């Protein structure tokens, strides 16, 4: 489906990003991985994915809180693999605290990674997409791009902004072959979330299945984690020819969280 295409996926050495990168590679795209794994571990992951799917796979670490590093990441993808056809802005961080207690340096870091990196990466790849009159930009936002939760004001602000940014970009490129969408998942089963479940079970002295239902997924009506592979398949659809008509959308995959 994506043979000959080049994809850049930020934060793609674990969790959602890795699932997305694997789905794109499985469908023929060359993939630039990005993350902060130790060099040997990253090289093992890169080599294994290239061998499994028979495509070119590269890896570049980047400080996504730094604009120059984001631009360098996009340049490395183009140099090693070719002009970027697919950009998936997935990398993000979270910090939970009341606004009046929120560390200012955490605010700056969160906004830089969750929001500003999306702008810098998009700006870097758009000229090539415009030249080829084809491109797919998928920004992994969150259900918090559509609704809010207490003690997550900076995260909520960043994800609302990603949704708005996605819509604006879609309007700018509406008459080209480029699409831009924001995907808004609820809670996704990742190693990080699994650790949160174990920690919350210990704090509340509850079994993990009850913690999942009554604590972690309290706001999510279906009471089930979204699997990273399922989210990846949705991203794959948006990047496919069948997704050409879908642009400028904020697309929930949140177990009816935002249906209320």
From TrEMBL:
Output the superkingdom of the source species. Bacteria
Check the record and name the Gene3D superfamilies matching this protein: NAD(P)-binding Rossmann-like Domain (3.40.50.720)
What organism does this protein naturally occur in? Azospira oryzae
Output this protein's name.
3-hydroxybutyrate dehydrogenase
Q: Which family does it belong to?
A: Belongs to the short-chain dehydrogenases/reductases (SDR) family.
Q: Which InterPro entries match?
A: 3-OHbutyrate_DH, NAD(P)-bd_dom_sf, Sc_DH/Rdtase_CS, SDR, SDR_fam
